[in-house]
Specification:
Elements (H helix, E strand, L loop, with lengths): L1 E4 L4 E4 L7 H9 L4 E6 H14 L7 E5 L8 H13 L7 E6 L1 H13 L6 E5 L2 H7 L7 E3 L2 E5 L7 E4 L9 H18 L1 H8 L8 H17 L14 H11 L7 H19 L4 H14 L9 H10 L10 E7 L2 E7 L2 H12 L3
Parallel strand pairs: 2-9, 3-4, 3-5, 5-6, 6-9
Antiparallel strand pairs: 1-2, 7-8, 10-11
Helix pairs in contact: 4-5, 5-6, 5-8, 6-7, 6-8, 6-10, 9-10, 9-12, 10-11, 10-13
């Protein structure tokens, strides 16, 4: 079991039976009501494994949400809060979020708002949630096409990442999680980048996951409220979130797919209008284009994407805010590119010529 101490909780990576999960339940919530929040997929593939493996969860209430990012909205939160009221959940009870990034984001938000805060544990079941969404203390739901526009900082009691749950995922889903791992390498660790680009998603194991989690956790410990270096974790996400928001109501594309191409686009910005060397941009483009299907759209979509970027939650008075890189492994925050520069990159990458 790999344990990574975070703010006021621990991130544990390995078999959940070997983690502190059972001990934590017994010592802190033995007499408390427990609620499991999951989606249709994790209810089918993961929840029964937990409830049959841990007697402490035998009487847990289970709230099953519809799957998909389009359901990470306030209307769903209201339904969950009403269910928690029906179950008479109090501030000493426990919410356990079992699922991917949508569930850990929304479930943590629900727990943090209800009665001004109910303790919660995250058990991420997707690679993306393990390496990104489940830790760090960010909660959030979407507002229309705008990603995580509503949310707050609130830490879990415990995070347990058991790679056994990755066996329930199609390879494509693991690929979306790998995009966030590649980002960690691009902003903080060239060795991590180099190791990831040479392995398939089926070769990602607990140690690889722990390296990515450790990179993110190190940043979070230094800047929990994202006032400084934590903004570096947004690399690829300004354009990535705009792509995801646009396609949410079209032929939907996953967060990881959009972030992967966001990494390429923002690297191209860094090469054309910053200091990223040409050979490093070529390495990034070749690595990502080899694994992630190309994204293409009509020229008219660029205006929509720019509008989404202009309303991104990371922006300040200075305009559209980016994290950029000067070399693989070194990020720079609070960097602005002009609309003309962004447009040029979008046209070059995403418009069929």
């Amino acid at each position: 079991m790999i344990q990574i101490p975070s703010l006021d909780y621990s991130i544990e990576i390995g078999a959940i039976h070997a983690s502190s999960f059972r001990k934590f339940l017994v010592e802190n919530f033995n007499q408390s009501k427990k609620v499991i929040i999951c989606d249709e997929n994790t209810n089918e593939h993961c929840v029964s494994y937990l409830t049959t493996s841990f007697d402490e969860l035998a009487n847990a209430e289970i709230i099953v949400l519809p799957s998909g990012e389009e359901n990470k909205i306030m209307e769903i939160c209201l339904q969950v809060w009403e269910a928690l009221s029906d179950y008479k959940i109090q501030r000493g009870d426990l919410i356990i979020n079992v699922g991917g990034g949508m569930i850990t984001d929304l479930g943590a938000f629900v727990a943090s708002i209800y009665k001004r805060g109910v303790p919660f544990i995250n058990i991420p079941t997707s690679l993306l949630a393990m390496v990104d969404a489940s830790s760090g203390g960010k909660t959030g739901v979407d507002l229309g096409p705008y990603k995580n526009q509503l949310g707050l900082f609130s830490t879990p009691q415990l995070v347990v990442c058991d790679p056994i749950f990755l066996g329930t995922l199609p390879e494509e889903e693991k690929l979306w999680g790998k995009a966030e791992m590649l980002k960690h390498g691009l902003i903080r660790s060239k060795p991590h980048w180099n190791s990831l680009k040479n392995i398939s998603v089926s070769e990602i194991n607990a140690e690889t996951i722990a390296t990515s989690v450790g990179i993110k956790n190190d940043v979070v410990l230094k800047d929990f409220k994202e006032e400084n270096i934590r903004k570096g974790l947004n690399f690829g996400h300004t354009i990535g979130h705009a792509l995801e928001g646009y396609f949410l109501s079209k032929n939907k594309k996953s967060h990881g797919h959009c972030v992967a191409w966001g990494l390429v686009a923002e690297s191209l910005l860094a090469y054309k209008f910053g200091k990223l060397p040409k050979e490093e941009y070529a390495d990034i483009y070749q690595t990502i284009s080899k694994e992630y299907p190309a994204i293409q759209f009509e020229t008219s979509v660029i205006e929509v994407l720019l509008e989404l970027m202009e309303n991104d939650k990371k922006n300040t008075k200075s305009g559209i805010n980016f994290t950029t890189i000067s070399t693989i492994g070194e990020a720079h925050i609070d960097y602005s590119f002009s609309v003309a520069e962004i447009t040029e990159v979008l046209q070059e990458l995403f418009i069929q010529h």
